[in-house]
Amino acid sequence: MKKVLLLIITSLLLNQINAQISLPKTADVTKAATSALGSFIAPPKLGDITGTTNSVVDKLTSQLSLPASQKGALTEAVGGFLKQKQGIMGLAGSDPSAYLSKFAPMQQGLFGKMKGIMGAANFSKFMNLKPGGNGAGNVLSNLFF
After folding, report:
1. Spacing of C-alpha 115 from chain mean position
2. CB distance 135 to 68 below 8 Å
3. pTM for this one?
4. Is 6 part of any domain?
5. pLDDT single digits (tens) 21-60
6. Domain housing 33
7. Closest to 82 in 3D by CA, of 109, 117, 62
8. What is the number of structural domains in the chain?
9. Is residue 4 part of a domain?
10. How many angstroms separate the Cα of 143 from the Cα of each of 2, 6, 13, 15, 131?
11. Structural domain includes residue 7
12. Which long-range contacts (CB under 8 A, 24 or more apart) does 121-127 make?
């Protein structure tokens, strides 16, 4: 009986913790991106994807004190995202609305992977690292704009 009660309490606590940090639904992200068109922030130019990926992962690893065991999965997730993003970068100058509608679900996918890799607490800390403005000079701006 004690085991069952302990299992139920543990399950409820884990559900509560997970519910506190959740990602927005795709429709909400797309709607927010479209409404943000009036204050569109052009994304930073992407140069060398591998170099940018390594810079992003190094910054996240140091600022969030992530263990080395997470570095490989994080590098794969960020690198894949940046390769996808590179394919739509031309839209940012010619059609910001189209750029945002394609970027939002890509970013949501990345953030979902990152949350799974680094855990909810570190993901929350990561979200607080979002650069202001266009984040010029901050390598993390590649993940947010």
Report:
1. 8
2. no
3. 0.69
4. no
5. 555 555 555 555 455 455 667 677 778 899 999 999 999 9
6. 25-144
7. 109
8. 1
9. no
10. 46, 40, 31, 28, 10
11. no
12. 122/64, 122/66, 123/21, 124/21, 125/63, 125/64, 126/60, 126/64
